[in-house]
Amino acid sequence: MKIIEPSFQFFEPLDGAQMLKRLERAGRVCYKSEDKITQGSAETFLANIIKRGHESVLEHEKITVSLICDRGVTHELVRHRIASYSQESTRYCNYMGEKFGRELTFIKPCFWAEDDPKYAVWKEQMAQLEETYQRLLEAGASPQEARSILPNSLKTEIVVTMNLREWRHFFRLRTAPAAHPQMREAADMLLAAFQAELPVIFDDLSV
Question: 122-149, pLDDT tens digit by residue?
């Protein structure tokens, strides 16, 4: 059994400067002000666009990430409809196979410290589930049958693509205090990276 922290990576390198230039070109069509494009004008133009709530312009660019999290988080994530998803399938993945190290991997709950008795109970249950999953496979169950006992804490990988406007909507909802702690953990991690890459688009959102 392996226990890991959530993580992510950009699916492809981001060129924030070029993305801003393309967004400016698209947005200025609305005002027929393309002649005002200068070196560095994109940041000011887009900041004003966002301030005025004209966020449809942001739909012309997208970001794709590969997120490692627990399956409970993905159940909430895929409720965001203006997005594309490709997720690791428990139907076809045999976690007792060589490529998975012959073990189940779980995401560490962010709300319990490792010395918390509740964490010990959770860890014991995960170990039990791993043993039961292996026994089912050894008894002849297929991965899609054995997956019926797998918990929300199971590690999964999901590739997520959203346009920039939808990412902003996602962050507003999922970094809020009312968000589930593990969903907020993932959203905070993503937002910090997005702010580093595209500050003019995301800096007005709080982490």
Answer: 999 999 999 999 999 999 999 999 999 9
Place of tokens 């203006």: 82
How would you classify the pairing of strands 155-163 and 62-70?
A: antiparallel
Buried b (16+ CB within 10 A) or exposed e, 180-196: eebbbbbbbbbbebbbe
pLDDT of 207 above 80: no
**Out of 28, 165, 168, 174, which one is annotated catalytic?**
174
Average pLDDT (187-197) is 97
* CA nearest neighbour of 111 among 183, 188, 190: 183
SS3 per-residue string spanning the chain: CEEECCEEEECCCCCHHHHHHHHHHHHHCCCCCHHHCCCCHHHHHHHHHHHCCCHHHHHHCEEEEEEEEEHHHHHHHCCCCCCEEEECCCCCCCCCCHHHCCCCEEECCCCCCCCCHHHHHHHHHHHHHHHHHHHHHHCCCCHHHHHHHCCCCEEEEEEEEEEHHHHHHHHHHHCCCCCCHHHHHHHHHHHHHHHHHCHHHHCCCCC
Single out the residue of 52, 92, 87 nearest to residue 73, CA to CA: 87
Residue 174 annotated in active site: yes
Chain segment 76-114, per-residue pLDDT in tens:
999 998 999 999 999 999 999 999 999 999 999 999 999
